[in-house]
Amino acid sequence: MLDSPPPPPALPAPRGLKTIRQGSTVTVRWEAIAGAAGYTLSVRLSNGVEQHYALGIRGAGKDRQLRLSIPGYLGARVTSPLRPPGRDTARGAPPP
């Protein structure tokens, strides 16, 4: 029987999470995490709807951002921190 390798250690939540609203555009920015293959983000709107976003990584920049279009009459709040879903498979560690 073959033993599977242990799962990679959990990555920390990204730092520097900031949200900026200009009219109906909400921009969410954060610092990238080394080894992350992507991020997930949950946003709760003032009408109770929760939206989830799964974001891959493009480019090698240090900072990441997501722009959302949300009607001005709705409030928006990031309800859970951004979480990297797994390590880069190129490094040999599978996503969780």
Descriptive overview:
This protein is mostly beta strands and 96 residues long. It has a domain at 18-83. It is built from no helices and 6 strands. It has strands at residues 18-22, 25-31, 38-45, 50-56, 63-69, 76-83. The strands form 2 sheets. The protein has a 3-stranded antiparallel beta sheet with strand order 1-2-5, with no helix packed on it. A hairpin with a 2-residue loop joins β1 (18-22) and β2. The two termini are 22 Å apart.
Question: Could you list some keywords that capture this structure?
Answer:
96 residues, 44% strand, 0% helix, disordered C terminus, three-stranded antiparallel β-sheet, mainly beta
Brief digest:
With 96 residues, this protein is mainly β. It has strands at residues 18-22, 25-31, 38-45, 50-56, 63-69, 76-83.
